[in-house]
Amino acid sequence: MRRLAAAVEGERGGIAVIVSLLMVVMLGFAAISIDVAKLYSERAQLQNGSDSAALMVAHKCARSETDTNCSATAPMAADLANKNAVDGLSNVKSISLDKPNRTVQVTAGAKEAGSTTNNVSLFFAGVLGIPSAEVSASSSVRWGSPIEGTTPFPLAFSVCQVSGMVNGATQLLQNHTSNANADCGLGPAGKTVPGGFAWIVQSAGQCGGLVNLAINQSGSDTGNDGPSNCDAVLNKWAAELGAGRPVTVLLPVYEDVSGTGSGASYDLLAFASFSVEGWAFSGADKLPLVYNNASSSDKNLQCKGDCRGIIGKFVKYVSLADGYKLGPVSPYGATVVELTS
Predict the structure, then answer these.
(1) Any residues with CB less than 8 A from the CB of 128 and at least 6 apart, and which?
(2) Contact, 211 vs 149, CB < 8 A?
(3) Mean pLDDT of 248-273
(4) More confident residue, 103 or 7
(5) CA–CA separation, 165 vs 167, rounded Å?
(6) Contact present, 321 and 337 (Cβ < 8 Å)
(7) Diameter of the chain by CA atoms?
(8) N or C: which end of the chain has fewer CB within 10 A?
(9) What gap in Å lies between CA 193 and CA 185, rounded to an integer?
(10) How far is CA 338 from CA 84, 258, 318, in A?
């Protein structure tokens, strides 16, 4: 018995060593599970902040390169980065802006009250000699005009109808009339499918159609009937207009057209931004004129009786890319921004 008691007494120190080693392991796991989660959360906040700041700078540059926020010292960048941080603190480390190539990169870093570094304090890892870690995130955005994408509505306009009309007055673009000016000084751009615009080929089961400016858009339906598969789109537009909200869509512009009827082929030039105010079509769907702001004194905007067309104005418009492929900025108002990384 004395020998057994002595053996137990000798093992007590060994158990303390094992417990100490296990405590180190447990602290390590705590550092991984808690501190690393904190770092991931901080980086996610910084990523949102840098995304917002980069998109803002690109949006401002797309509208006007002389805007104070279209610069490497954009005042709004820090505010957007801070608003995306849970504690309201972050640091815009850099804004790299390349106006000729239409790109901007924003890098945001972590920030803690009273600190000038981009480090985040760590609790459990500090016990292991790692008191903090640097956290940052970068976002790259570019802007330009779309050169390929699905237009939401199957219409194409003559460049004669768009030239000089960006941010212009409301106009009526009629179907099957000669309201495209053949003497607009743009050569063959004055040639029209009746009305200066026509239906383009729709994608299967969709209202709009895929447009690639590098490829002639062949095929056209020149009828007065409302386009198929577009009831939902037009109903949505009607609801937006009824609520006082603008409806702006990107539509293709052609500079030349050959053929007639369903054999028409368009030489596409660019996308233009069109703010829709109303439309009138006929056919089995009986789509009505949902809005017409024409006064009795402005006969050019009235669309009654046999009139078929769309009412609105060409505007300067900047939006997210939404699936469009980008190219150089066009003079017809349509510009999109795209988050690249």
Answers:
(1) 27, 28, 31
(2) yes
(3) 80
(4) 103
(5) 6
(6) yes
(7) 119
(8) N
(9) 18
(10) 20, 34, 11
Q: What is the pLDDT of residues 57-102, one digit of tens each?
A: 999 999 889 999 999 999 999 999 999 988 888 889 999 999 999 9
Residue 49 tokens read as 């902040």
Q: Hey, what amino acid is at 320?
A: L
Instruction: Tokens for 170, please give them.
Output: 């409301």
Give the tokens for residue 2.
């004395």
326: β partners: 146
CB 144 within 8 A of CB 102: yes
CA 201 and chain centroid, separation: 25
Give long-range contacts, CB 8 A cutoff, 24+ apart: 75-82: 77/53, 77/106, 78/53, 80/49, 80/52, 80/53, 80/56, 81/46, 81/49, 81/50, 81/52, 81/53, 81/106, 81/108, 82/49
Average pLDDT of the segment spanning 162-176: 73
pLDDT, mean of residues 43-52? 94
The angle formed by the CA atoms of residues 308, 309 and 315, to the nearest 5 degrees, is 170
Residue 323: the pLDDT is: 84
Residue 160's closest CA among 176, 184, 191?
Answer: 184
Q: In sequence order, what are the residues at sequence separation of 6 or more whose Cβ sits closer than 8 angstroms to the Cβ of residue 279?
A: 234, 287, 289, 290, 309, 310, 311
Most confident range, picked from 9-13, 143-147, 181-185: 143-147
